[in-house]
Amino acid sequence: MRSYLIAGNWKMHGRRDAVVELLAGLKTQLPAEPGADIAVFPPAIYIDLVSRELQGAPVAVGAQNVCDQSKDGAFTGEVSAEMLRDMGCRYVIVGHSERRELYGESSALVAQRAKAAIEAGLTPLVCVGENEAQRDAGNTLDVVGEQLTAVIKVLSTQQLGSIVVAYEPVWAIGTGKTATPAQAQEVHAFIRASLAKQSEEIAATVRIVYGGSVKAGSAGELFAQPDIDGGLVGGASLDAGEFSAICRAAE
Questions:
Q1: Which residues pair with 124 in a beta bridge?
Q2: How far is 187 from 45, CA to CA, in rounded Å?
Q3: What is the pLDDT of residues 72-129, one digit of tens each?
Q4: Mean pLDDT of 162-178
Q5: More confident residue, 145 or 32
Q6: What is the active site of this protein (predicted)?
Q7: Where in the sequence numbering do the catalytic residues fall?
Q8: 8 A C-beta contact, residue 191 and residue 167
Q9: Are residues 85 and 121 in contact, defined by beta-carbon separation less than 8 angstroms?
Q10: Residue 234 annotated in ligand binding
Q11: What is the Cα–Cα distance from 141 to 113, expressed in whole angstroms?
């Protein structure tokens, strides 16, 4: 049976004092034994601070990006998967729409980042999703399928079982819009069916989470869908009360 995963992507937010305050709020408001796996994804510069502050808490730490190169070398500005694991990370986000759209990351590069993460023992959250024009044109499943296929091509069947897929409709990220539970479930079911073409056993165990303006008020209905296994939460993860409420919705 798949367990829920609630992941908080802080994006480029935070200062030392604010990070400590947010974590203090989470530690007091989250249950000691939550009914879901919980992870937060701070900016890279705060990963060590967050890891130390969360010692003993039921919250894992992840990174927002990772280098596609698996060995140390002359890659100025990059952070390797081995470095992230060394600093206490368990997860890493790859292929977020902001990385794809603002920084030109291709699906092929995203796939290599996912592979590097797995080889270092990290769990990659592979983000896929369509923009508003693509949805309006009826191309949602084609876009998501292309993004997912790029990852499937470079991973072994066993490695494929080590990923989390995050479906994030780009038109719903930071806009206040949220895909209806039916819209989200349709894409999640498509993703699981695509994975099943490689291995039905793995498709049944891989977690597929929804991202796109997830709030406490919408989380319960989204998480009740058969193929939605949690959420990748953006802005709401910066509010300890709201994020804790989303985590409780997964119970």
A1: 92
A2: 34
A3: 999 999 999 999 999 999 999 999 999 999 999 999 999 999 999 999 999 999 999 9
A4: 90
A5: 145
A6: 96, 168
A7: 96, 168
A8: yes
A9: yes
A10: yes
A11: 23
Q: Which amino acid is at 31?
A: P
Residue length, the chain?
251
213 is in an annotated binding site: yes
Backbone angles phi, psi at 125, to 5 degrees: -95, 105
3-state secondary structure 65-85: CCCCCCCCCCCCCCCCHHHHH
Q: Distance between CA atoms of 24 and 19, rounded to whole angstroms?
A: 9
Q: Work out how many domains the chain is built from and give that number.
A: 1
Q: Which two tokens stand for residue 96?
A: 């977020």
The answer to whether 171 is annotated as binding is no
* Token pair 């369509």 in the structure block, residue: 130
In this structure, what token pair is assigned to residue 74?
């002359």
Give me the pLDDT at residue 173, please: 83
Domain residue limits at 69: 5-249
Which tokens is 123 given? Answer: 């769990």
CATH code at 240? 3.20.20.70
CA dihedral 195, 37, 7, 112 (to 10 degrees): -40
Phi-psi region of 11 (alpha: psi -120 to 50; beta: other; left: phi over 0): left
**How high is the pLDDT of residue 174?**
78
Residue 146: phi and psi, rounded to 5, are -65, -45
- Give the tens place of pLDDT for each residue, 141-167: 999 999 999 999 999 999 999 999 999
- Structure token digits, residue 147: 């993004």
- Extended beta strands in the chain, E state: 5-9, 37-41, 60-63, 91-94, 123-128, 164-167, 207-211, 230-233
List 233's β-bridge partners, or say none.
8
